Amino acid sequence: MKRRNVLHLAPGVILGATACSSGKKKAAQAASQKPLATGLNTSSAPKTQPNTQYRPPAYTQRLRNPDMNLPSEFRSATVTYNKGLSTHPYLAMTFDDGPHPQNTPRLLDMLRARNIRATFYVIGRNVDRYPHIARRIVAEGHEIGNHTYTHRKLTSLSDAQVRQEMQKTQDSIARATGVKPRTMRPPYGALHTRQRQMVFNEFNYPTIMWSVDPEDWRRPGVSVVRSRLINRAHNGAILLAHDLHAPTVDAMPGTFDGLLRKGYQFVTVSQMLTQRASV
Ligand SMILES: [Zn+2]
User: Fold this and answer.
1) How far is CA 40 from the centre of its chain?
2) In angstroms, how far is CA 276 from the centroid of its own chain?
3) Where are the domains of the chain?
4) How many Å lie between the centroid of ligand 1 and the Cα of residue 166?
5) 55 CB contacts (<8 Å, ≥6 apart)?
6) Backbone φ and ψ of 52, nearest 5°
C-alpha cells in the first residue's frame, strides 16, 4: 500500500506516492526529491482521472477467438466427432488438402487480416513440398491436422498401410513445424469404425468429420460456396472447405465477414473438442 506501490519511472520521478492519505510521510519524502516532470505536484492528491475509455488492444481479438487453453497432453474422450457443443456460438473452419503454394498463403493472409483461427488438414506429401507454408500455418496460431500422406481412400488399405499414411504425415508435420497433430481427417471422409478405433488407439487421433459441407470441390462458384457456409453454419459447427481450390479461397473473405456479422466466434477443432469435454 505504501512504499511498495511507488512506481519509479526515472530517477526523481515518482508516481503514486500520494495516493494514500496514511502515507503522508512518504509523500513528503517523495516531494523533497524534486520530481523532474514539470507540473507534477506530488504534495497533493493526484490530478489524473482514471482512463475509462481505454480498452486493451486484445479486446476484439478475444471476442473473435475465445480464450480456450488446451491441455499440453491433449486427450480426446471420443473416437469420432462431426461437431461441437451447440451451447456456444463457436465455429471450427477446416481446410483440407493443402498446403498449396498460392492458395494457402492467400488464405492465411485473409485469416490474419481478421485475426481468426482455422484448422488445416494437410497432406503429408504437400507438407514435404512446402514445409515453409506448414510452418506459417502453425506460426500464425492455426491448428494443423493429419490428412494422410498420399490422400488415398483408407477404407481400401491394409492396417499397415493406414499406419504408414498416418506416421509419415505426422513425421512430415513434426519435421516442418515442430508440432505433433492432435486430430486426423480421412480423405473423402472414408474410414471404417474399426480403423478409426485403431488410429485412435495408436496415434491418439480422434477422427474429425464435419457438419457443414458446401461441396466446394464441385466448384459451384464463389457465391454459392459463400452462401452455403454462411446459411448452414450453426453453433458448434465444423465447416469443411478445401484450400486446394482457388474459388474456395476467393469465397473466404465474404464467408468470414458474413459469419462474424452473424455473431460467430472462431475456434480450432481441438479447442472445440476441449470445450465439449469440459462442459
Ligand atoms: Zn482431402
Assistant:
1) 45
2) 16
3) 1-48, 79-278
4) 14
5) none
6) -75, -15
Cell of 174: 513434426
Beta bridge partners of 242: 96
Cβ atoms 155, 192 nearer than 8 A: yes
d(CA 188, CA 180): 23
212 SS3 class: strand
pTM beyond 0.90: the answer is no
CB atoms < 10 A from the CB of 134, how many? 26
Segment 6-25, tens digit of pLDDT: 444 444 343 433 334 444 44
Ligand 1 center to 98 CA (angstroms): 9
Q: Which three cell numbers stand for residue 237?
A: 459447427
Tell me the torsion sign for CA atoms 259, 243, 67, 58: negative
Residues with active-site annotation:
96, 242
What is the C-alpha separation between 183 and 152, in angstroms, rounded?
18
All three cell numbers of 127: 507438407
Query: Would you state the CATH architecture of domain 79-278?
Result: Alpha-Beta Barrel (3.20)
Cα gap 26→12, rounded to integer Å: 14
Other Cβ atoms within 10 Å of 95 Cβ, number: 30
Question: For residue range 70-123, what is the model confidence (pLDDT) as tens digits?
Answer: 766 677 778 999 999 999 999 999 999 999 999 999 999 999 999 999 999 999
Residue 245 cell numbers, joined: 481450390
Q: How far is the CA of 277 from the centre of ligand 1 (A)?
A: 27
CB neighbours of residue 162 within 10 Å? 22
Q: How far apart are CA 275 and CA 279, in angstroms?
A: 6
Least Cα distance to 159 among 208, 186, 194 occurs for 194
**CA 193 remoteness from chain centre:** 29
